[in-house]
């Protein structure tokens, strides 16, 4: 469907909202369950959209969904919509459910290479029609963030895929949903927020990624043949083998302890070695929310480097999974894929 105008004033800035669904636009059905509604619902409940000095157009991915149903095909479609509309709009807001928003924002950060405009994911904990909704404030602020320019140079303030929620603008591939009951649902892991919305919007310019101007490159492939193996005391060989010996597995995020440590028991080592010998790319990510993977700090992680497991530095699990899908999607060559996996591609890690 072509984008339709949501407001009609003579505007300075134009923003495209990509409406995907989520609680922001939900309402209760007869059984008392929250189900997604179309954008009209939101537009009618938000007369303040007209007060913004912006042209806000809306498009959607198809039927609005609860974000628990998001797929890699949806991510590719979001990236394609941004590519198709890139020249026509100054910025983009993706209205999305909170449950998987951090995954989607991370995925889009990888798919959109050399991004020179702002893409802000946002959503809500309470539907727009409820009196205590956070949808209105989140959407209005996300639109302002997407339109933000440097006061002097008038250049794009945040040329990144990011996520705005409650009062924080977070780099998309550093975001994590940490709350399902409160309004402050997202946290920025291992990286400062890019901006804070108080009475004023306060940008943390030093932390915003500025790249030399280059043409946007939109990637079109993600490889879904990946999995996540979370360690816990009591994990058995049978379980590990069941996961790592899946026929066409190409990559696995290993969720380890502390600074990237794992059991040194011989069967576990053998499972990992056999997997890497079969060409499975393993990425070591810590279960800790803060800190980083330091393979070799302890004896219980030194052998992981020897086997060829890539240390994930301070990456989130959400970004790790989508990075693995992305890297395997763009490279059939195992050595190149390994190299890319270890590199900082979009500010998702802070290498030391
Ligand atoms: N289940 C909802 C979703 O992710 C949760 C929300 O948006 N707050 O679509």
TrEMBL record:
Domain Asparaginase/glutaminase C-terminal positions: 225-340
Domain L-asparaginase N-terminal intervals: 15-207
SUPFAM superfamilies: Glutaminase/Asparaginase
Positions bound to substrate: 67, 98-99
Active site annotation, chain numbering: 23, 98
Pfam families, A to Z: Asparaginase, Asparaginase_C
GO biological process: aspartate family amino acid metabolic process
Family: Belongs to the asparaginase 1 family.
Protein name: asparaginase
The UniProt record lists the keyword Hydrolase: yes
PROSITE patterns registered for this protein in UniProt: ASN_GLN_ASE_2, ASN_GLN_ASE_3
Keyword RNA-binding: no
Gene Ontology molecular function: asparaginase activity
Keywords: Hydrolase
InterPro entries: AsnA_fam, Asp/glu_Ase-like_sf, Asparaginase/glutaminase-like, Asparaginase/glutaminase_AS2, Asparaginase_C, L-asparaginase_C, L-asparaginase_I, L-asparaginase_N
Enzyme class: hydrolase
EC number assigned by the record: 3.5.1.1
């Amino acid at each position: 469907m072509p984008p339709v105008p949501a407001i009609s004033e003579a505007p300075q800035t134009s923003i495209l909202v990509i409406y995907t669904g989520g609680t922001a636009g939900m309402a209760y059905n007869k059984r008392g369950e929250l189900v997604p509604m179309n954008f009209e619902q939101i537009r009618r409940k938000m007369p303040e959209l007209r007060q913004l000095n912006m042209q806000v157009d809306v498009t959607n991915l198809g039927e609005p969904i609860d974000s628990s149903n998001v797929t890699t095909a949806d991510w590719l479609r979001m990236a394609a919509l941004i590519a198709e509309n890139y020249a026509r709009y100054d910025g983009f807001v993706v209205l999305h459910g909170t449950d998987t928003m951090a995954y989607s924002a991370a995925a889009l950060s990888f798919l959109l290479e050399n991004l020179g405009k702002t893409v802000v994911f946002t959503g809500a904990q309470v539907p727009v029609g409820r009196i205590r909704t956070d949808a209105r404030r989140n959407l209005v602020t996300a639109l302002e963030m997407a339109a933000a320019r440097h006061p002097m140079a008038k250049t794009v303030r945040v040329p990144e895929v990011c996520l705005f929620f409650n009062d924080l603008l977070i780099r998309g591939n550093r975001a994590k949903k940490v709350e399902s009951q409160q309004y402050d649902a997202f946290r920025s892991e291992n990286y400062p927020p890019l901006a804070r919305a108080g009475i004023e919007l306060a940008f943390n310019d030093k932390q915003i990624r500025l790249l030399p101007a280059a043409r946007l490159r939109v990637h079109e492939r993600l490889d879904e043949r990946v999995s996540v193996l979370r360690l816990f005391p009591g994990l058995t060989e049978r379980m590990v083998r069941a996961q790592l010996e899946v026929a066409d597995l190409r990559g696995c995020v290993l969720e380890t302890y502390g600074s990237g440590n794992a059991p040194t028991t011989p069967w576990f080592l053998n499972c990992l070695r056999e997997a890497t010998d079969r060409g499975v790319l393993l990425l070591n990510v810590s279960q800790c929310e803060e800190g980083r993977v330091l393979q070799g700090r302890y004896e219980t992680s030194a052998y992981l480097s020897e086997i060829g497991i890539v240390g994930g530095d301070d990456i989130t699990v959400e970004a790790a999974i989508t990075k693995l899908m992305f890297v395997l999607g763009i490279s059939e060559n195992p050595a190149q894929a390994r190299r890319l996996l270890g590199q900082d591609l979009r500010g998702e890690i802070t290498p030391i």
